[in-house]
Specification:
This protein is of the alpha+beta class and about 190 residues long. Helices cover about 15% and strands about 65% of the residues. The protein is elongated, with a radius of gyration of 21 Å.
Amino acid sequence: MKKMSVAIAALAVLASLPAQARAQEKSRRFEIAPLVGAYLPTGGQRDMLDDSVLAGLTVSYDVIPYAAVVGAFSWAPTHAKGVGNGDLDLFQYDLGVQGQLPIALSGDLTLKPFVGVGAGARTYSFRDLNVDSETDFAGYVSAGASLQYQAVAVSLTARDYLTPFNGIGRETSTQTRNDLALFGSVGVRF
């Protein structure tokens, strides 16, 4: 009998979690958020490109309280090492999914830790050199958290990107390169 009571209580708590999360969301499932942060090349990519500021925009839609579709566009004005006037615009655009756990802290305040995965493309474009732009596939994994109060969400995100790379204007054999995007955003939910 005790086991049955504990099982019923546990099921009642688990069943109430989605209802609490839905009540917290108040049908605000769509979010648009400008972002700012840092582009940090790692590994072999660090030998090619400098660290840079990162700016852009994310758009997300909560399919259910525990999963969202996320789209992002970002720009990093970096510099290619070893190239005379190597000012380089790096454009990143991707689409992904993220799993999230809405935790009601109090009243209208909700914490949402999340992890995600996505894919897209990256374009390398020299500003002042007569070199064709290069666009490569990009995939990422991400982790972070969002703190939401009513219609405002403040988020911190870390993304680890993997891209094939063949030399930015100096064709070499294709290699897999790695870099990080660390950024914060302030969004509006509606």
